[in-house]
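Hey team,

Filing this mostly as a record. A colleague (T.K.) asked me to run one chain through the structure pipeline before their review meeting, and I want the input and output archived in the tracker in case anyone asks later how it was produced. No errors, nothing strange. Just documentation.

Input sequence:
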Amino acid sequence: MRPRVPAAAIPTDLAPLPTPQSTGLTRELLTPPAAAPIQPRSDYLLVLSASLIALGLALFIVFHAFRGYRRNDSVRMLYLATGLCLITVVPTALSLAVDTVGQLVALDPRVYTVYQPLANRASEVLGLCALLYSLLVTPAESG
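Output structure:
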């Protein structure tokens, strides 16, 4: 059994809560920091246009590599086109898609810091493997 506390031992007048003035805190310390500035639309359009130009050039190069495969019936050119596509087109298109969706809906920050870079690096590694294979396969094996 717990001992009973006499009613006289319980304080009835509680001390007031400390105020910012009594603790020495100033108004500057108590105000929350301002939100990060929103990126101006012109900056976003500049990055978007540069990305679209890079994507267009990458597609042009991949298209010509694929035409070389069709014209010469060379598997080496097919792997070259695939590797170039995985290195240049896929990461750029993925970045554009994620940024566009991010402008429309609030994405988790991990999408930008973990998932998108991971997908980009995986695409680039696969593209480099395809390029390496296109360089190492001998013409007799390429059909």
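Quick notes for T.K.: The mean pLDDT is 82. Helices lie at 20-23, 27-30, 41-72, 75-104, 109-136.
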